[in-house]
Design a protein that fits this description.
2 domains, alpha/beta, 46% helix, 6-stranded mixed beta sheet, 3-stranded mixed beta sheet, 11 helices, 246 residues
Amino acid sequence: MTELVLRTDVDGVTTLTLNRPDALNALSPNLFVELRGHVESIANDPENVGCVVLRGAGRSFCAGNDLKAIQNGEATPSPTFQSDTINMIENLAQPVIAEVRGHCYTGGLELALACDLLIASETAKFADTHGKWGMTPRWGMSQRLPRRIGPLKAKEMSFTARSYNGAEAAAMGLANQCVVDSELEAVVGAMAADIVANSWHSARGNKMLYNRGQDYTFHDGLAFEMAESPGRSADTEERVKAFSKG
C-alpha cells in the first residue's frame, strides 16, 4: 500500500512529503491520519530532530482538502482531527519550513501557515478558495493568515479567492522568499542546514517565545520573555570557548 506521507531523516533534518502527486497532494482524511502519526513521532524525538521540512511530491505542495475522498466515505477519527493536527505542527518544538511549489490552496494554505518559515518557487500559487464553495475556515486560517500578512491583505485573499504567485507571496510577507523552481529544494536544504548547525536549544526557545509572545500586549510580552525565556543551554560555555579559539 502506498504511503501517503513519506519521511526521510538526514543530519538532524526530517522531511515530510505529502505523497499523492496524482491528486496534487489533496488532503484526504487518510493522509491526515498518516501525517498525524509522523508529527507525533517527531514531537517525541527532540534529541534527533532539529528541523522539519514539509513539502509535496510532484508539481504541487497541496491543492487543498479532498472533498471527493470525504464523499467516498473516508473519515478522520474525530471532527477536529485536521485542525488539531495543524495545531500540533505549529506547536512542534522544532522549527518547520514549508517548501512550496505549485498549488498551495485553501487547506494546503492552512497547512503551510502552521509552518514557521515558507520558501516558495516561482511556480507556487497561493489561494484561499473557501468562497468558491460557500465554505468558511475551520482549521485556523482566520487567525493565522491575518497575523502573517495583515488583516487587509488576508481579507482580500479570502473575499476574492484570487491566486497569488510566489513573488507576490514573498512581497506580502506570506513567504520568506521566492526562488526559481530548480533551486527550491537546495535553498530549503541550505536553510534547514543553517538551523540545525546552530543551537537547537536556542531555536526551540526562540520559537516558543515568538509563538506564545503573540498572545500578549507589548509590555506584557516583555514580562513574559523575562519570566519564561529558557536562557542559556548546557553547552553555551563550550560554544563561546570554541568561538574564541576560532
